[in-house]
């Protein structure tokens, strides 16, 4: 007998499942790597294609094609790639016409790309990441990319899903790094006012200036939501019998094409004489408007140079699922910028610890193998006698000093037994002893790092200095 379904309940459940799916797969960036799923898959595709910064570029169509075929079957990812190339802190380098604020990029069959230095920086901790099968089960993809670059806090991001809208402002990398350092050093005692010593407000690649009051900026960072007001950078001066407005910096929310259309309407009204897009190849932003008098500027033109932006901090937290029903668990995070920064630092502690432990294991293995080679060199006669015996491995395990009677005696004997006699004879014992000393010194340093992981985080944040850029958005 078929089960009777309640249409209202079924619709509500399906709508809820759809809404969650959109939030997880499209709308929100993950706090840890600052990436939406399509951006993460593009970055991972570049890694699988070995599109490293030191190598050659590849056709964008090949990159997006591989991304679609292996990791993201739902839609073309070229628009996301264009955004990642043109951002203030780009994860990709573009070759060809990638467009700008006012112009679209050329078709993906014409442009080429590869990872930037920032993209390489984001991928340098891959060994500490968690991976899940792709949609076909043929390949692996990261749950999140374990990046050392605080992409979530520097990259502006917007997303709309069912019942949720996020608008996250971009920030200056140097200011973000200094704020993160302050939190690491001060710990749980850190207050929002402490990080406001470093983060003065959002930053924007095309300039402009922030004209909101300091209390409004503080409110945004304390509550995680708020509205900030911006103004384009401009000058007004006498020009023959008229007045000349020169816009040299576009503020957040300002669209030069929309502005030009408004000015064309004012030409019809006799207020504006002409509009000139006077930007050269070296100038990203420059518009000139000739108008008749200052009164008209204040009444009809100035309001188009002021924009308000509404912000709301949302983020996802993706973790590898322990359930067999799905690969990834997600959690929607809200909060102020301090809460999110603390959470990011806590995640970095986990990743940096994994990196240190893995490197320590690597050096312990190197040290152990070097010690066994040195031991074989010092007691080559035992190795020679072992070759004459019925069971060379057993003979070495029972007769070689320093390994006989140990738990790893058989393993050590197998390693020594695999060495060629001529290579044992050529070992420089003094150099090998020196190498072992260096390995032990590095292991001690790694142990110290594991016990002082915050020091590692501060050290890695310091390495982001080469990516610093001048603040473009002025604070009024």
Describe the structure.
- It is a single chain.
- A hairpin with a 6-residue loop joins strand 4 (131-133) and strand 5.
- A 4-stranded mixed sheet has the order 14-9-8-17.
- The chain starts with 6 loop residues before the first helix and ends with a strand.
- By secondary structure, the protein is an alpha+beta fold.
- The model has no long low-confidence stretch (mean pLDDT 92).
- Among the domains are: 35-146, Topoisomerase II, domain 5, CATH 3.90.199; 231-308, Gyrase A, domain 2; 356-461, Topoisomerase, domain 3 (Orthogonal Bundle), CATH 1.10.268.10.
- It contains 18 helices and 17 strands.
Please work out how many helical segments DSSP would assign.
18
CATH architecture identity of the domain at 35-146: Alpha-Beta Complex
For the termini, the CA-CA separation is 71 Å
> Tell me, what is the CATH class of the domain at 35-146?
Alpha Beta
What's the CATH topology name of the domain at 35-146?
A: Topoisomerase II, domain 5
Number of strands: 17
| Low-confidence region ranges | none
For the largest beta-sheet, the strand count, sense and barrel status come to: 4 strands, mixed
**Broad structural category:** alpha+beta
What fraction strand? 15-25%
């Amino acid at each position: 007998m078929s089960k009777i379904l309640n249409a209202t309940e079924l619709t509500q459940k399906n709508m809820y499942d759809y809404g969650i799916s959109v939030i997880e797969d499209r709308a929100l960036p993950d706090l840890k790597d600052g990436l939406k799923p399509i951006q993460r898959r593009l970055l991972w595709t570049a890694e699988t294609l070995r599109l490293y910064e030191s190598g050659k570029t590849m056709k964008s169509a090949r990159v997006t094609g591989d991304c679609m075929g292996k990791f993201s079957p739902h839609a073309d990812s070229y628009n996301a790639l264009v955004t990642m190339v043109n951002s203030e802190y780009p994860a990709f380098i573009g070759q060809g016409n990638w467009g700008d604020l006012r112009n679209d990029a050329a078709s993906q069959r014409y442009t080429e790309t590869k990872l930037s230095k920032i993209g390489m920086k984001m991928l340098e901790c891959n060994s500490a990441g968690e991976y899940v099968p792709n949609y076909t089960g043929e390949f692996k993809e990261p749950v999140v990319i374990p990046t050392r670059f605080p992409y979530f806090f520097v990259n502006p991001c917007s997303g709309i899903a069912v019942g949720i809208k996020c608008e996250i402002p971009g920030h200056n990398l140097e200011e973000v790094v200094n704020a993160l350092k302050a939190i690491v050093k001060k710990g749980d005692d850190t207050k929002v006012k402490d990080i406001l010593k470093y983060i003065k407000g959002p930053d924007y690649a095309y300039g402009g200036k922030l004209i909101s009051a300091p209390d409004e900026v503080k409110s945004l960072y304390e509550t995680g939501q708020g509205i900030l007001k911006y103004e384009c950078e401009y000058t007004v001066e006498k020009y023959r019998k008229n007045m000349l407005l020169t816009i040299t910096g576009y503020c957040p929310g300002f669209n030069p094409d929309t502005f030009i259309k408004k000015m064309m309407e004012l030409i019809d009204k006799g207020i504006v004489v002409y509009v000139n897009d006077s930007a050269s190849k070296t100038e990203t932003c420059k518009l000139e408007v000739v108008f008749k008098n200052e009164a008209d500027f204040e009444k009809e033109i100035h309001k188009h140079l002021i924009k308000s932006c509404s912000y709301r901090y949302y983020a996802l937290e993706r973790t590898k699922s322990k359930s067999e029903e799905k690969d990834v668990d997600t959690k929607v995070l809200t909060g102020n910028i301090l809460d999110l920064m603390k959470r990011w630092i806590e995640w970095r502690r986990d990743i940096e610890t994994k990196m240190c432990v893995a490197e320590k294991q690597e050096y312990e293995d190197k040290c152990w193998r070097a010690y066994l080679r040195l031991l074989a060199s010092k007691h080559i006669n035992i190795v020679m006698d072992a070759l004459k015996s019925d069971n060379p491995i057993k003979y070495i395990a029972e007769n070689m000093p320093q390994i006989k009677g140990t738990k790893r005696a058989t393993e050590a004997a197998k390693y020594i037994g695999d060495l060629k006699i001529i290579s044992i004879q050529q070992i420089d014992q003094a150099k090998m002893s020196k190498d072992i000393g260096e390995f032990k010194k590095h292991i001690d340093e790694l142990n110290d790092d594991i016990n002082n992981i915050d020091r590692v985080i501060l050290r890695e944040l310091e390495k982001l200095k080469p990516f610093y850029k001048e603040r473009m958005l002025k604070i009024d």
